[in-house]
Amino acid sequence: MSADVRPIAASELPDWLRTVNTGFLTASGVTQSDVAQRREHTDLARTQGAFDTGTGRCVGALRSFAQRLTVPGGADVAASAVTNVGVLPTHRRQGLLTRMMAAELTAARDRGDVLSTLIAAEYPIYGRYGYGPAASLREWEIDVPRTGLDPRRPVPADGGRIELVDAAQARLIGPGLHERLRAVTHGAVDRDARWWSLATGLESVSHRPYQEKFFAVHRTADGEPAGLVAYRADGHWTDAKVPLNTVQVTDLIALTPESERALWHFLCSIDWVLKVRTGPRAPDDLVDQLLPDPRAARTVTAADFLWVRLLDVVRALEARTYAVPGELVLEVTDAAGLADGRYRLTAGAGGDTGSGAARCERTDAPAGLRLDVSALGSLYLGDESAVRLAALGRITELRPGAVALADVLLRTARRPWCPDVF
Ligand SMILES: CC(=O)SCCNC(=O)CCNC(=O)[C@H](O)C(C)(C)COP(=O)(O)OP(=O)(O)OC[C@H]1O[C@@H](n2cnc3c(N)ncnc32)[C@H](O)[C@@H]1OP(=O)(O)O
């Protein structure tokens, strides 16, 4: 089989979308309204197809979009977010994804993107293209009667209050809250107006129809919104007429620990609700520790989530801050030849860069450690430990102490978190 890999034309969108839906096992067909929506929200120049030269049919798909990713310290960098990756089952393992990824990553580097991001469907796919798992997620199921929370007192004692709002109000309050959360959460990505339209039912796509939700806002004593939760209940009862509802949280934004506490307490105080599923949270989220009995919260998912592939090491390392000052020379290998080289990172460079800031430059100086760009992706947001990667053979220490220094420099006190699937 031979295939052309290239950006698609507008007329090829239905065929391309059919390939995405088939790859994701969601549907074999597409509706006209799906195609019209895609046309409106898709940059065709960033939408690649692999076309079988025999049949002319689209057999592979991938697209990217511009994204902002918050890095440690609160700055955000230009990311190329990769999504909708699929190859038809009849054309797999013939190198089509490899060709589409090569085209996408080269284009992203040439556009000036600092890095590329994605949520990996399966773990083994993307490491070969230079991505590393950079932020993970954890989901808990809370056994409400075990929590020790007083269901009669869901109202915060500090004068704050919980207010049920409708979807339109959530759409008004949510974006501002999310922007404030994103500014202090490394690993978080921006949400556009469409994200809120889809999350609040203003817009819907046929393979993911909007399901009604409840929304509650936490306001501080002075009336300012400090948190928002969106949730659904499953309506489950036993045959003996005993309520057994599970609440599924679809989004919970809280700007302060007080707001987190108030929102979780509220959810655990709703009549008929025996279990609360938290939805994907940061791996070090406070939710279990906010309960009088933390064992009431059982981890149901703990997995890799956001993957990062560095394209511009200098800008990436200068964009984030570091917990301590220090200097490290990294020898970065990259089979794709996009980010390889030797770099000197000087953290806490001082001067007008500020104490937590850094300088990074290419250098000929001897390197302290050697690592693949995928390992650097795993270290970048502060989640992974350089010591662990060295133990796994993914970092080679060339100067004694360099791995321990990298660990202290790059890790962050709170772990990164990406709240969004994209
Ligand atoms: C960001 C996102 O959108 S994630 C969604 C990804 N899409 C899916 O998972 C949908 C179902 N899967 C598919 O459509 C395809 O199998 C894809 C897109 C994952 C891979 O496409 P292919 O064209 O088969 O990949 P390609 O032939 O380029 O594979 C390159 C290498 O990766 C390996 N590989 C590809 N996919 C997988 C996988 N799922 N598991 C393990 N290895 C894989 C191949 O074996 C090959 O290895 P090799 O070079 O050692 O032989």
TrEMBL record:
**Which GO-annotated molecular functions does the record name?**
aminoglycoside N-acetyltransferase activity
SUPFAM superfamilies reported for this sequence: Acyl-CoA N-acyltransferases (Nat), SCP-like
The alphabetized UniProt keywords are: Acyltransferase, Transferase
Q: Which GO terms describe its biological process?
A: aminoglycoside antibiotic catabolic process
> What InterPro entries would the database entry show?
Acetyltransf_17, Acetyltransferase_Eis, Acyl_CoA_acyltransferase, Eis_dom, GNAT_dom, NAcTrfase_Eis, SCP2_sterol-bd_dom_sf
Superkingdom field: Bacteria
Q: Where is the active site?
A: Y126 (proton donor), F422 (proton acceptor)
One Pfam family in the UniProt entry:
Acetyltransf_9
Annotated residues that bind acetyl-CoA are located at V85, G86, V87, R93, Q94, G95, L96, L97, T98
Output the Gene3D superfamilies linked to this UniProt entry: 3.40.630.30, SCP2 sterol-binding domain
The N-acetyltransferase domain sits at: 3-156
Q: Which family does it belong to?
A: Belongs to the acetyltransferase Eis family.
Subunit description: Homohexamer; trimer of dimers.
Protein name (database record)? GNAT family N-acetyltransferase
Q: What is the lineage of its organism?
A: Bacteria, Bacillati, Actinomycetota, Actinomycetes, Kitasatosporales
